[in-house]
Amino acid sequence: MKKLILVVILTLFVGNTFAQEGEAILPKIGFGLKAGLNSMHNRTVNASSDNVQKKTGVYIGAFVNIPTSDVFSVQPEIIYSSTEFQGTNNINLLHIPVLLNFELGNGFTGFVGLEGQVLIDLGDAENSNLYNSFMFGFTFGARYQITPNFYIEGRPYFALSKFLEDDSGYRKFNTLQIGLVFKF
């Protein structure tokens, strides 16, 4: 008899728990596209100088936004960028950030995350085989909601790894991306 009462109580408890979970409203996973301007600051350091070249290009990408609560979400992205590198050569990169988003209120969202960058192409740049094909860094920034589906965002990227390192010095670059976001 005790076993029967225990089974009935457990059944009611488990049934009530699942019923409450079924009534919970889970935030919807979102997808989107983004495009904008990419400003690269290419820093070259050697024994005799410390030089920064600034070049502008474009980027385009896609993302998936996975809410974890009403205020936080995880957002993996994939972004292609192309920026002038040496003369007529462009540096083409694939950016792969994973962002932690947090709602700030009044249409603003802040984010921070780690970013890997894969070198796709350097054109006919000299000694292109010496450059690292994978770089690592971090990014942070903010976006502002213009309409229910359109946002404007800005973010800097700070490299933790070097793009090129040899006996004479190293090259490292940071970027600033400003663009529009469309969320489905």
Structure summary:
The chain has 184 residues and is mostly beta strands.
Q: Count of helical segments?
A: 1
CATH architecture: Beta Barrel
Radius of gyration: 23 Å
The low-confidence parts are 6-20
Helix/strand structural class:
mainly beta
Examine the coordinates and then state which fold CATH places here, giving the name of the CATH topology.
Porin
Element-by-element helix/strand order: HEEEEEEEEE
Oligomer class: single chain
How can the largest sheet be summarized? 8 strands, antiparallel, barrel
Categorize the overall geometry.
elongated
Average of pLDDT: 85
Note the beta-strand portion: over 45%
Number of strands: 9
Reading off the top of the CATH hierarchy, the class is best stated as Mainly Beta
Q: How many structural domains does the protein architecture include?
A: 1
Give the fraction of residues assigned to helices.
Answer: 10-25%
Note the gap between the termini.
Answer: 56 Å
* Neighbour order of strands in the largest sheet: 1-2-3-4-5-6-7-9
Descriptive tags:
single chain; 184 residues; mainly beta; Porin; eight-stranded antiparallel barrel; 1 helix; 12% helix; elongated
Strands, helices and their partners?
Layout: H1 2-23, E1 30-46, E2 50-67, E3 72-84, E4 90-105, E5 108-121, E6 134-145, E7 150-159, E8 164-166, E9 169-183
Antiparallel strand pairs: 1-2, 1-9, 2-3, 3-4, 4-5, 5-6, 6-7, 7-9, 8-9
Structure description:
The protein has 184 residues and is mainly beta. It has a single domain, classed as Porin (Beta Barrel). Helix content is 12%, strand content 64%. Strands 1-2-3-4-5-6-7-9 form an eight-stranded antiparallel β-barrel. Strand 1 and strand 2 form a beta hairpin. The N and C termini lie far apart (56 Å). Mean pLDDT is 85; it is low at 6-20.
